[in-house]
Amino acid sequence: MKISGFTIARNVIKYNYPILESIRSILPICDEFIINVGDSEDGTLELLQTLDDPKIRIIRSVWDMNSGATVLADETNRALAECSGDWAFYLQSDEVIHEKDHRPLLNCMHKYLHDDQVDALRLRWLHFYGSYYRYRIDYGWFQKSERIVKNSGQVESCGDAAGFRRKDQQRLRHRATSCLLYHYGWVHPEEIMTQRRVNAENIGFAKLRSEERIEKYSYGDLNRFPAYLGTHPKVMEERVAQHELSQADWRLINGKLWYHPFKWLRVRYKTSKRGKTAVQ
After folding, report:
1. Helices (H) and strands (E) in the chain, counts
2. Which pLDDT does position 279 carry in this prediction?
3. What integer pLDDT is reported at residue 121 of this predicted model?
4. In 53-117, which ranges are E strands?
């Protein structure tokens, strides 16, 4: 069984993407890793070239930013086309896999490798928000996504590259895993979060009010979100330790939930109870 990892990257330094951590999080279980690097203004290519590993292959492209939200799917498919593995494992630049999920994911890939009724494997999203110890499970935040697909030529990225579909328009046949997809796209300094949202609007993902383009983004009261009591992937430990808001939040959580067994055991868990928390 051969596994290809793949991702896309553009202006990752400017927008604070943890792309090195993302790639390193699954590199040990990949036989090759394809990175599609778009034309950037911040040294993205040079950063990725510091990844000194023979598994990694960088392709360069000029992204059509006038094509709207589909540009990410188009460039994802460009990277997918370069993959030669039986499975293609896709991570976006702010998504990371925990090392404890390597073995379960490999087992799933072995199990369904020759099953023609399986196109993809589905992971459970953990959307961290504001703090590395808070996550969103309220309505409007998707909680599951396919990130590992059979490299059969029958599956392609679609929409804003958040998911995949079959080219023949038939239902994508997936199998669920219990593994978590750590999404860090909403844990940034407030000024960078504002820049990221403006960038999303420029591409075509969002529509902002005029004040949202200039004011510093506010995460609001983080206490309204569930606390994450588990560990983070090892590749993220330095970022987590250096994030002052998260460290202050963890001290608050420690004080309130000092008795909780999940905190003492650092259980990687997210609640299934969804709410109606207002989006900021």
Report:
1. 8, 11
2. 44
3. 98
4. 56-61, 87-90, 95-97
- pLDDT tens profile 46-89: 999 999 899 999 999 999 888 877 899 999 999 999 999 999 99
Backbone angles phi, psi at 135, to 5 degrees: -140, 160
Query: What is the C-alpha to C-alpha distance for residues 78 and 93, in angstroms, rounded to an integer?
Result: 16
Q: What is the CATH number of domain 1-273?
A: 3.90.550.10
Distance from first CA to last CA of the chain, Å, rounded? 44
C-alpha distances (whole Å) from 98 to each of 3, 105, 172, 183 are 17, 11, 25, 11
**213 vs 79: CA distance, rounded Å:** 32
**Phi then psi dihedrals of residue 201, to 5 deg:** -65, -40
The answer to whether 176 touches 122, Cβ cutoff 8 Å, is: yes
Helix, strand, coil % in the chain, rounded to nearest 5 = 35, 25, 40
Q: What's the whole-model pTM score?
A: 0.94
Confidence of residue 216 (pLDDT cuts 50, 70, 90): confident
3-state secondary structure of 255: helix
Asked if residues 119 and 154 have their Cβ atoms less than 8 Å apart, the reply is: yes
Dihedral (CA of 171, 114, 160, 236) sign? positive
User: Going by DSSP bridges, is the β-strand pair 95-97/174-186 parallel, antiparallel, or unpaired?
Assistant: antiparallel
**Phi, then psi, of 91 in degrees rounded to 5:** -130, 135
Q: Between β-strands 87-90 and 144-150, what pairing exists: parallel, antiparallel or unpaired?
A: antiparallel
What are the CA-CA distances from residue 43 to residues 38, 53, 260 (Å)? Answer: 11, 19, 44
Contact 121, 147 (CB under 8 A): yes
